[in-house]
Design brief:
The protein has 739 residues and is mainly β. It is 3% helix and 48% strand. The protein has four domains: 40 residues; 298 residues, Methylamine Dehydrogenase, Chain H; 198 residues, YVTN repeat-like/Quinoprotein amine dehydrogenase (Methylamine Dehydrogenase, Chain H); 96 residues, Sandwich (Immunoglobulin-like), CATH 2.60.40. The protein contains one helix and 64 strands. The strands form 16 sheets. A five-stranded antiparallel β-sheet has the order 1-54-53-52-51, with no helix packed on it. A four-stranded antiparallel β-sheet has the order 2-57-56-55, with no helix packed on it. The protein has a four-stranded antiparallel β-sheet with strand order 3-4-5-6, with no helix packed on it. It is globular, with a radius of gyration of 28 Å. The protein starts with 20 loop residues before the first helix and ends with a strand.
């Protein structure tokens, strides 16, 4: 039996299913994933005081298409695309790579113009010229209103399946200046799209199949609809029939010769979740959770599976058939090339591995070391942060979750394979020199003073002597009460983020005899911790960043917090700022006053921000679907007058009020007042009455009036006003004083 946590969106590894359990698993995970995306992701990248620098965005494979004339295959890989020469299908050769800004969910290649159209999730629609395969050029992009999942090009228009925003029609007459000219907001989520003649066929999940008349691209009109009873992921139209990959309902064939009256004429229940489909001749090629299914559709009333091929990993993504070969985007399995010349006996003849999910990152000596889930350790040269390049990797046997680099060695927390010690003195030829198989699932690792401190889930904290990296030896452990996830070592203490058991503090001065000296129960799930200047900064999942005074390790006390909007999974503190990997993106919190933390920057990352490491002026983010993303924080000026949420509120003895002052044209220091009023409008206290430069500020109010007297409990109004050169603006917030 495997050990795993379901951390809010997917179970971390695939279990072994009993009969019929995989369908329920797929459906449950699909619905949870959709909820995540529709409640957060939109095309484009919102940011404040953080700029995108560069990326190495490669990961799992979700999309594939082919240029048959030039023997090229374009395989999506996380947030990138590999351009492969398949002149020899048994040995695909990478010709070049494309780095997009989002997650590559859909691809369409126009053989005539040699343009590649990319449905790029939060990156919208990207258009790339492949005129020179060794040097693709991004021609343009268009930020669709939601999350681009599929794309089909017909004539001079690109039709985009844009998730919750339905169908978007983009005029591509000038490829350098794409313009939306029409749209149709489907009732359900638009997953994928196929255009045939004057009609667009939209795969809309559990809302079925929609048929949209696009004869006038500026005014798309729904003319037909068919409810399939399954979950429509993909659609292919040929000869008056729509072939639908219908999730747990397998393959459905719909007669659309009369688009206003679609009728099902055949079906085949595939063994697993039907995700992708391609139809050629008398055969439908369906990707499902078990692999590639080949179904004879010559008799629509009697569909028959004639062959199948089980590919590595969970194959439930995309397929493209050309020249007797099926090219499968196989998720964890990368690209698989299957000879289907004999449909009854499909045989794999080639493959190309893609990276995996970026879970952890550590930066040292010009290299970023990425813990890349089932693809092991990836070594990325970041000497030029705007153009990170992979220079080496080591495929660990387990699931790489975390990494710490010390000297010439990378120490990898490798899930069910414990601690792996990798010699990275030559980054291009990394070699494992030792390992220690922890009893639990190794999530995090910190190396200090010749010891590796490994958090091992339900097995707690393990201390491994790595003074001889080739012969790691356990010297001590402590069975924490929760689920040990993250660890940071400072001085004689190890600080453990112990999930539902909060922060645990261990005296490790004697590694063979660990003693817990203190603990603090955080309100949510402690996932990571960073210690700096007498404070422990805890990434507390649903409850953001918690700041805990650990100057007395036996009596830790929370002194401040900032409730980030996402799920705080990791934190790194540098130069008075806490960088929080918050699932939906990177948040930067000013913690120079730990009792009054203020958010001063953020960037909505394209994937899911899992881990963060700060080196020099750059923040390196392990972004799950989207590999490694590099950002730069600059302490910019506020763009407007802002009065932030005070903390604590309600309060008893005092509260911290935070605010931002913008730059005002023609005035270096506008006049600012910050005042407290009671509910009758009577002035209670003036906290600020001064000329202030643009920037971020905080001030405390101790529930007193201007003469130092304590005020009664109740509701008070805080007013921030700015006056300069005829400009008058104000913000207000409510404060609640209790006893």
């Amino acid at each position: 039996m495997w050990e795993v946590l379901a951390l809010g969106f997917v179970t971390l590894i695939h279990p072994v299913f009993k009969a019929d359990e995989s369908m329920k698993y797929m459906m449950d995970q699909r619905l949870v994933h959709e909820k995540q995306i529709t409640t957060h992701y939109k095309a484009g990248f919102d940011s404040l005081n953080l700029r995108f620098v560069g990326n190495w965005p490669f990961g799992k494979s979700y999309a594939v298409c082919v240029d048959p004339a030039r023997n090229l295959v374009f395989v999506g890989s996380g947030g990138g695309i590999y351009v492969l020469d398949v002149s020899q299908v048994s040995n695909p050769v990478r010709v070049s790579e494309i780095r997009t800004r989002g997650v590559v969910w859909g691809l369409h290649y126009d053989n005539t113009t040699q343009m590649l159209y990319v449905a790029d999730g939060p990156g919208g629609l990207e258009i790339w010229s492949i005129e020179e395969p060794s040097a693709p050029v991004r021609v343009s992009y268009y930020y669709t209103p939601d999350y681009a999942r599929g794309v089909y090009v017909s004539g001079s228009y690109a039709y985009v399946a844009d998730w919750d925003a339905g169908l978007r029609v983009i005029d591509m007459n000038d490829p350098e200046n794409p313009v939306e000219v029409g749209y149709y907001d489907t009732p359900g989520w638009a997953y994928d799209i196929y255009v045939s003649g004057n009609y667009a066929y939209i795969a809309a999940g559990d809302d079925g199949l929609y048929i949209i008349d696009v004869s006038d691209p500026e005014t798309p009109v729904e003319v037909g609809y068919y409810y399939t009873h399954g979950y429509v992921e993909d659609v292919y139209v040929l000869g008056g029939y729509a072939y639908v990959a219908d999730g747990y309902s397998g393959l459905r064939v719909i007669d659309v010769s009369d688009p206003e009256n679609p009728v099902e004429v055949g079906y085949y229940n595939t063994a697993d979740w039907a995700e992708g489909i391609y139809v050629l001749g008398n055969y439908a090629y369906v990707t499902d959770g078990s692999g590639l299914r080949i179904i004879d559709v010559s008799d629509l009333g009697n569909l028959v599976e004639v062959g199948y091929y089980v590919t590595p990993g969970y194959t439930y993504y995309d397929v493209y058939v050309s020249g007797g070969y099926a090219y499968v985007a196989a998720g964890e399995g990368g690209l698989r090339i299957i000879d289907v010349n004999d449909p009854e006996n499909p045989v794999e003849v080639g493959y190309y591995d893609t990276p995996s999910y970026a879970r952890g990152v550590y930066v040292s000596g010009g290299y970023a070391y990425v813990a890349d889930w089932d693809a092991g350790l990836r070594v990325i040269d970041v000497n030029d942060p705007s153009n990170p390049e992979e220079v080496g990797y080591y495929d660990t046997p387990g699931y790489a979750c975390g990494v710490h680099v010390s000297g010439d060695y990378a120490y990898v927390a490798d899930g069910d394979s414990g601690l792996r010690v990798i010699d990275v003195s030559d980054p291009q030829n990394s070699v494992e020199v030792g390992y220690y198989d922890t009893p639990g699932w190794a999530h995090g690792v910190y190396v200090s003073g010749g010891y590796a401190y490994v958090t091992a889930g339900f097995a707690g904290l393990w201390i491994v002597d790595v003074s001889d990296p080739s012969n790691p030896k356990e010297v001590g452990y402590y069975d924490t009460p929760g689920y040990a996830y993250g660890v940071y070592v400072s001085g004689d203490y190890a600080y453990v983020a112990d999930w539902d058991a909060g922060l645990r503090i261990k005296d490790v001065s004697d590694p063979e005899n660990l003693v817990e000296v203190g603990h603090y129960g955080t309100p949510s799930y402690a996932r990571s911790v960073h210690v700096s200047g007498g404070y422990a900064y805890v990434a507390d999942w649903f409850n953001g960043l918690r700041i805990i005074d650990v100057s007395d390790p036996s009596n830790p006390e929370e002194v401040g917090y900032y409730n980030t909007p996402g799920r705080a999974g990791d934190v790194y503190v540098s130069r008075g700022y806490a960088y929080v990997a918050d699932w939906y993106g990177l948040r930067v919190i000013d913690v120079r006053d730990p009792e009054c933390p203020v958010e001063v920057g953020y960037y909505d990352t394209p994937g899911s921000a899992e881990d963060v490491y700060v080196s020099s002026d750059y923040a390196y983010v392990a972004d799950w679907f989207d590999g490694l993303q590099v950002y730069q924080f600059y302490v910019g000026e506020a763009s407007k007058l802002v009065l932030y949420h005070s903390w604590p509120n309600p309060f008893t003895s005092g509260t911290c009020i935070r605010f931002a002052i913008p730059q005002v044209d023609g005035c270096d220091k506008p006049h600012v007042t910050l005042s407290i009023y009671d509910i009758t409008g009577r002035l209670i206290r003036t906290l600020v009455d001064d000329e202030l430069s643009a920037g971020y500020y905080s001030v405390e109010w101790h529930a007193d009036n201007d003469v130092g007297q304590r005020v009664a409990q109740g509701i008070y109004l805080c007013e921030l006003k700015l006056q300069a050169r005829g400009l008058h603006t104000r913000c207000t917030s409510k404060l609640i004083h209790i006893r």
